């Protein structure tokens, strides 16, 4: 069997709000994820913590207190890297303070030290669906240009503090979900459908300037570190060979690549100008914005890949920018959550992206969310999960053979965590089981599943044995 490239970053990935818990400890302020019920992607936003309601992020899997135990297990599995995010509101509880919260900074110092003790590289997302709540309520989120300054201060603080500890950064998680989940991904509450697109493109512009500034700071403060962007990139197939379907699917695809087009190439693509013209959108920019965006493009493209989707002409294009399931694809099996399983799509998407950008790719999320059955002796034989990951890794190997430069692969949710889509615990991704149910009951005990040893041997052999 073929091996993966030398130094390939085998890892696992989580997000602060889906794992840490301790939502109001040590000075942390409330984040948007703390006031969502039933999932930050598809759930309900309360705007404040309402008494008597269950919020999955409040305890999550208590990673905040149990990270040492988790990291020891990850080290035993042989992980080379670990992706997590910094909860912005641990560092700046309201997002707009002048001074950071020392206890929040200390937590990530301790966490990164613990990882480095085992030679596990931290891969850090600066903002993963967990913007401080105050920035939404008081400022209208990214619609407000002031957020650029708040983000810049936050980025400067963490880049300076963790210089030498963190070599791999990513700006915004799945930023191309801005259109589908503007509140979670972009921190903007859509109050008026009429001005939705105007607001989204204006907020996106602020995000582009902010991420370019973060990249600039990264080059100045930590010249050896790399800063990537992060998108959700399911391939979008045309439903038939009807040119109408083919063009529409292509158009939808381009829109899902809008964010990487700007962050990687450093300019607004020509197709965006047509969208703006036809929808009467005018994006306010200040002098120097386009220059900042042009001069500070990202070093690599991180993306999540779970599934593909199928598109037919006439299905709504605007608003859909990636990650959607679309129409039934009769050639593919599905997970218990209805997500089409498409390993070949990973090879397709790697080639598509590498052809388009020629910068290193990093698969920072891939995995199988399913229900685990516990056997009589407490063992968990998660063969469907192993099968899913194996088939995706085989296709990733093919993509590398095709010539794509791939830095690494991080298994989504190495320990079971809260689902972003539904807020559930029973949608499990881990090779480590966490004893907790949807209502918050359980001991939080960690237990290895069958996939634990399987992934360990994959890493040990650098992908030779799959
Ligand atoms: C991505 C998010 C993650 C994650 C994953 C799986 O969209 O970046 O935060 O949770 O999807 O989705 P889910 O948790 O809904 O199964």
Explain what this protein looks like in three dimensions.
The protein contains 15 helices and 14 strands. With 466 residues, it is an alpha/beta fold. The strands form 4 sheets. An 8-stranded parallel beta barrel has the order 1-4-5-6-7-9-11-12, surrounded by 4 helices. The structure holds 6-O-phosphono-beta-D-galactopyranose. The site of 6-O-phosphono-beta-D-galactopyranose has 14 residues, from loops. 6-O-phosphono-beta-D-galactopyranose (BGP) is lined by residues 15, 18, 41, 173-174, 232, 304, 365, 369, 412, 419-421, 427. Belongs to the glycosyl hydrolase 1 family. Its EC number is 3.2.1.86. GO terms for molecular function: 6-phospho-beta-glucosidase activity. This is 6-phospho-beta-glucosidase.
Structure at a glance:
With 466 residues, the protein is of the alpha/beta class. 37% of the residues lie in helices and 13% in strands. Helix 6 (146-161) packs parallel to helix 8 (196-221) and helix 8 (196-221) packs across helix 12.
